[in-house]
Amino acid sequence: MKKKRHELILDFIKNNNVSRQEEIIKMLFEHGFNVTQATISRDIKELKIIKEHFGKNDIRYAVSEKIGNDDNYKMIFTRSAISADATMNIIVVKCYSGTANAACIALDSMNLPGLVGTIAGDDTIFVACKDVNATSHIIGTINSLLKD
Amino acid sequence: MKKKRHELILDFIKNNNVSRQEEIIKMLFEHGFNVTQATISRDIKELKIIKEHFGKNDIRYAVSEKIGNDDNYKMIFTRSAISADATMNIIVVKCYSGTANAACIALDSMNLPGLVGTIAGDDTIFVACKDVNATSHIIGTINSLLKD
DNA sequence: AAATAAAATGTATAAACATTCGTACCGCAG
DNA sequence: CTGCGGTACGAATGTTTATACATTTTATTT
């Protein structure tokens, strides 16, 4: 039953602003589970759920996933970028109009080794790389992102 | 003095396993700051520091990478979006021409609870929400973003 | 199946944390 | 100056969460 309960909890906090364990107890009760706060506390620990401050006056539980975050960036990038080309140590990435900024931030956040800096216009990103070697490495990474 | 204190706190939690606000008080004291737990609580809120479960029996404070990125997202969003309106479980966000896509991606990336899906045209975003309740919550969040 | 070990949970309580309320300290307009 | 609006803070208190210990449930061994 623990498994099912955990699933419910995860689902619940993903789809609602949950800020107290009591709310989870209530939700579980409505789904036929009858557990105490101590159990929820342990569940939260096991599920590695975190409590985050959001906006100015909200606190909410959230699933802690650094990996999930990476995926997020990749998603942003692949949804924004169209193609990439390299000359010397510069890579030029073409994006859909208006998305270069977002794609650029996503790219930056990947912390690619050998990447020196980026600048974004409306639909184009310039990526400055350390040297030709790094350039081919990075464009390889970018192209593999573009494929999915 | 608050600025300096905040810096110390961030530095501290990045480089140590900090699991209680008391530890922060102690550290600050050693650096010449004399504040109470109430202040630390407020600092943690302002700095959007989270408490994460780590390993099997550790809890520690950490800087939420997600939130840091959130700031980026927020920036993209607020620079693109103009206004928002809701009917039933749909929110319509008006953006500057050509920016809806970027704003939409930013919005998606915030992982707002109750948000089911989004779609962007050139200057408009449709946001589908789970129900009316979620809708009002989400438009509240959007409006608070638009204010700054 | 009885005996034993291990996991899951509840109870009660302690610990950790957030918040309310009051005060002090600005910066500034009148 | 004087009063107003805002920020920062401590003390006290309320709220929320974690945990020590006891108990029940489930699995494992013999």
Question: Which labels suit this protein?
Answer:
6 strands; Arc Repressor Mutant, subunit A; four-stranded antiparallel beta sheet; two-stranded antiparallel ribbon; homodimer; DNA-binding; alpha+beta; Gyrase A, domain 2
The DSSP helix count of chain A reads: 6
**Could you tell me how far the N terminus lies from the C terminus of chain A, measured between alpha carbons in angstroms?**
37 Å
| Order of SSEs of chain A | HHHEEHEEHEEH
CATH architecture of the largest domain in chain A: 2-Layer Sandwich
The mean pLDDT of chain A is 83
Into which percentage range does the β-strand content of chain A fall? 25-35%
Strand order of the largest sheet of chain A: 3-4-6-5
What does this structure look like?
The structure is a homodimer of 148-residue chains. In chain A, the strands form 2 sheets. A 4-stranded antiparallel β-sheet of chain A has the order 3-4-6-5. A two-stranded antiparallel sheet of chain A has the order 1-2. Helix content of chain A is 51%, strand content 25%. The model of chain A is unreliable at 66-70 (pLDDT under 50). Chain A folds into 2 domains: 2-63, Arc Repressor Mutant, subunit A; 70-147, Gyrase A, domain 2 (2-Layer Sandwich). Chain A starts with a helix and ends with a helix. Chain A is an alpha+beta fold and 148 residues long. Chain A has helices at 2-15, 21-30, 37-46, 66-80, 100-109, 132-147; strands at 49-54, 58-63, 81-87, 90-95, 115-120, 124-129. The longest helix of chain A is centred in the last third of the chain and has 16 residues, at 132-147. In chain A, helix 4 runs antiparallel to helix 5 (100-109). In chain A, a hairpin with a 3-residue loop joins strand 5 and strand 6 (124-129). The radius of gyration of chain A is 21 Å and the shape is elongated. At the A-B interface, helix 1, strand 1, helix 4 and helix 5 of A face strand 1, helix 4, helix 5 and helix 6 of B. The structure holds a DNA duplex (30 and 30 nucleotides).
